[in-house]
Amino acid sequence: MYLDPEAAKGLPSRDVLLVSAIITISLSATIVLCGICQWCQRKLGKRYKNSLETAGTPDSSRGRSEKKVIKLPSGGKAVNTAPVPGQMQHEESDHKTEPRSSVSDLVNSLTSEMLMLSPGSEDDEGHDSSSRENLGRIQFSVGYNFQESTLTVKILKAQELPAKDFSGTSDPFVKIYLLPDKKHKLETKVKRKNLNPHWNETFLFEGFPYEKVVQRVLYLQVLDYDRFSRNDPIGEVSIPLNKLDLTQMQTFWKELKPCSDGSGSRGELLLSLCYNPSANSIVVNIIKARNLKAMDIGGTSDPYVKVWLMYKDKRVEKKKTVVMKRCLNPVFNESFTFDIPTEKLRETTIIITVMDKDKLSRNDVIGKIYLSWKSGPGEVKHWKDMIAHPRQAVAQWHQLKA
To answer: Locate the C2 domain: which residues (predicted)?
Structure first.
């Protein structure tokens, strides 16, 4: 091909074109690598953050050997031995992050979520009031060593425990008694935010003659740890030891039953909720109670009501009613207003506690109610009715729980 020398002066040479191509490819590769590096940094940074959050959990020292020794009335002692080193223990993480959204989007999504949980839907577990509440089950082992006069109790694990905390989970641990002795007890470690905990802890009742062992009742009580107030009972199991073959270790799965100290009616409380989205507030009206449990020796109580506003795991504000002297069917009719921004409503819980006033000792808890969109069926129904009917006082009776 013939090329005019004059015309060729205005065209780039072959070397120039080659250099330009190399520069273009290098810039493209740099841009891709930078994007990959930024993505890696975000992933590694998130992983590093999660590792920091996990490092300081209460069970981070579970590999250490611990012993708890108490003297029994028989002259023996009880020892809590730590899990065998190397034995697998399972911990679950419930930490989740949610994307941020505008206030209007949050209101719409929150309202739709509440309305979707309508009575009769598969998410509403309160449709069959006659069905017994599922309290979960516990696995444990029991055996007796005749040569060493030692009763061994192993607390292994539990499954399907109910959520006792407003966050939709529990912090369970187990107390071990040999009834009728209730003064001396042993207990497992607390498993944070876990409805299927694994303890794998062994308890030795040493120097305990067999003839006295068979006169005892093994009593296991599962509780939800609460650092702010009294621990909430979840369920219990009791087995007379004279009904077991203690010559060898036997493992049992037992359904948890309502705790004896929480059995029987504690009474009911009538209250109303009124949600005002424009004012960002909830009005709680404590109306009245009926058939409250008698907490005093005279067969009566001096009840009052505490109302706590909780956000996530923090107590924000507390209010309380007046004390009604010697009354098991008090009428309060007291209203309390709490300021709650719409964007915080999803993580908000209102804890209502009916107390018995005692001048000489610590005030007794008669019963509690947890109101949120993650509570029990009755509480969730009241909460979503409040959301579905803004600016209207929605009243409902609630059974007090231990």
So the answer is: 134-254, 265-398
Contacts of 166 (CB under 8 A, 6+ apart): 310, 349, 351, 370, 372, 374, 375
DSSP string, 58-76: TTTTTTS----EEE-TTS-
Q: How confident is the model at residue 342 (pLDDT cuts 50, 70, 90)?
A: confident
Is there a contact between 39 and 31 (Cβ–Cβ < 8 Å)? Answer: no
Tell me the residue ranges of DSSP E strands in 51-197.
Answer: 69-71, 77-81, 137-145, 150-159, 172-179, 181-187
Burial letters 366-387, b for 16+ CB under 10 A, else e? bbbbbbbbbbbbbbbbbbbbbb
How confident is the model over 110-145, as pLDDT tens digits?
444 444 433 333 333 333 333 456 889 999 999 999
Using CA atoms, how far residue 244 sits from 72, 141, 214, 248, in Å, is 21, 11, 9, 10
Token representation of residue 54? 């996990």
Distance CA 269, CA 322 (A): 15
**pLDDT tens track for 177-188:** 888 877 678 999
Give 43-74 pLDDT, tens digit per residue.
Answer: 444 443 343 333 333 443 343 434 454 445 44
> What count of residues does the chain have?
402
Q: How far apart are CA 189 and CA 161, in angstroms?
A: 16
Distance CA 85, CA 63 (A): 6
Spatial CA neighbour of 57 closest among 224, 198, 192: 192
CA dihedral of 388, 109, 277, 342, whole degrees rounded to 10 = 140
Residue 126's pLDDT is what? 36
Nearest-CA neighbor of 104 among 384, 342, 274, 281? Answer: 342
| DSSP 8-state secondary structure symbol assigned to residue 302 | -
DSSP secondary-structure letter at 295? -
DSSP annotation of 246 reads T
